[in-house]
Amino acid sequence: MILLVLCGPGNLTQAQQRKRTRTATSTRKSKTQLERERRTNLRRIQETSRILAQTQKQKQASLGQLNALKEKLTVQKSVIRTISSELKYLESDVRQTTTQVQQTQQSLVQLKAEYARLIYASAKTANSYNRIMFLFAADSFNQLMLRLRYVRQYSEVRQKQAAQITSTQQHLSSQLTGLTVKKQEKSSLLTTQVAESRNLLTLKTQQDQVVTKLSQQEEGLRQELAARQQAVSRLDNLIAVRVREEIARAARAARAMAARNAAKAATARATPPTTTRRPAESSDRATPGTTAATPEAPAEEAPATRTDRVALTPETAVLSSSFADNRGRLLWPVGRGFISQRFGRHSHPVLKNVIVENRGVDIQTGAGEPVRAIFDGKVLTVASIAGMNNIVMIQHGEYFTVYARLRGVSVTEGQQVKMRQQIGTVYTSAEGTSELQFQVWRNSSNLNPENWLSRNR
Fold first, then answer.
1. By residue range, what is the domain housing residue 340?
2. In the chain, how long is the greatest CA-to-CA distance?
3. Is residue 5 part of a domain?
């Protein structure tokens, strides 16, 4: 009897198949994330290009133009890095698929060889007479049944072997098609990478040209910087005054509330009980013609209020806590744009040995872009400062957000605003730069807005 094993080298165990499926799925997820990141970066490049085109309408180079070029360069580099990562995945896929194709081809060769042996062995007993003689030549009935089962199994094995060869051929064809697609995708990505690298070189050249032009305007830049520092100082003073005033106002309100509560408590203690006493009890407790003395309780003192933070009511405490809980997830004050100048101290982009300090972040965007409240709150201040244009300051409990360089304002002091509500539009300078100055404060402490804003706009 011939023993056939239907397990060629191309047949994977279930555990191997599951492992390969998990690996492929993980790779697909990573590739999907990279593709999504590339699309996002390309969208950011388009957005920045529109902002850059707006600044380039003016013939004279400007810091806004330089900032837009820097942002576009940064995103362009990110696109190239993402494409490189995608190429690595594709190269890995091509190598893996090539190996699988080779294994399948070897398996197919072996299956065909096994099938040829089966056909050859079957040809020897192809005659019905020979098959019957083989059966009746058995020494016993049990042997006859075994030989009959063997003949049937032999026929089934041939059919399964033929089906497996067909399935393997189809699988091989699918693998070859997938390999061709992956190679085409790799070729397309390489072409895209080359094009993006050329764009990067073009952007670097443009940046160098703008820096050269700006370096020739050093005196004008220093005057612009001095004017900005004066405007920032005026804005800082305004914020400090308004925060102090709000802390004092909240403290007075807290003391008044405490005094009212103390008066109510004293009135309640001074009011005689309304329960009716029986005569016997009255005579036992007080002598006729005398008045029982009521012991005086010590007067309540107003709670001490701190002078460095806003005293919160139950409602404003909830709002303040909610604002704090949304740290890192808060809405951006504009729907599009990029951070052109970050929080804190950093070197001037053109002037050497000059350090500038930013109390918030500058967000460069498009002309006429709506500015919106990032969270629910109350409009504390609407003002106008030279160099900062119109300013809106919104209170969120003990937190404050400041929106400066607004062209127009659509809210008033004391107005309650909701998140996403438009409070004005961004101002566009004579150089064509539309830039919003945005700050976050907690009482008198200046905070980094980037730690509070969401990464997704």
1. 218-249+319-451
2. 143
3. no
Whose CA is closest to 407, among 363, 368, 365, 361? 368
CA distance 402 to 415: 15
Cα dihedral sign for 118, 123, 124, 126? Answer: positive
Residues 208 and 233 both lie in one domain: no
Based on the fold, state whether residues 102 and 205 are members of the same structural domain: yes
* Tokens encoding 78: 């990110």
Quick one: 239 and 203 in the same domain? no
Three-state DSSP class for residue 89: helix
What residues pair up with 447 in beta bridges, in sequence order?
Answer: 440
Tokens of 419: 């998140």
Q: Checking DSSP bridges between strand 338-341 and strand 361-365, what pairing results, if any? A: antiparallel
pLDDT over 60 at 393, yes or no: yes
Summarised one tens digit per residue, pLDDT across range 110-159 is 877 776 776 666 665 554 445 555 555 666 767 667 766 766 666 666 67
Tell whether 416 is covered by a domain: yes
CATH of the domain at 374: 2.70.70.10
Of the candidates 339, 365, 337, 340, the one whose C-alpha atom is nearest the C-alpha of residue 67 is 340
Tens digits of residue pLDDT in 192-213: 888 888 888 888 888 888 888 8
The DSSP string of 221-266 is HHHHHHHHHHHHHHHHHHHHHHHHHHHHHHHHHHHHHHHHHHHHHH
pTM of the model: 0.67
Domains of the chain: total: 2
Give the residue carrying structure tokens 């106002």.
249
> pLDDT for 359-368, tens place per residue?
999 999 999 9
| Residue 307 included in any domain | no
Rounded-to-5 percentages of helix, strand, coil across the chain: 60, 15, 25
Strands 361-365 and 422-426, by their bridges, are: unpaired
Question: Is pLDDT at 295 greater than 50 in this prediction?
Answer: no
Length of the chain, please? 457
> Which residue intervals of 56-139 are DSSP H helices?
63-124, 128-136
- Rounded Cα distance, 27 and 22, in Å: 9
Q: Both 137 and 155 in a single domain?
A: yes
Strands 377-385, 434-442: parallel, antiparallel or unpaired by DSSP?
unpaired
Are the CB atoms for 82 and 37 separated by under 8 Å?
yes
Distance CA 403, CA 426 (A): 9
Residues 157 and 163: beta-carbon distance below 8 Å: no
Q: Is 278 a domain residue?
A: no
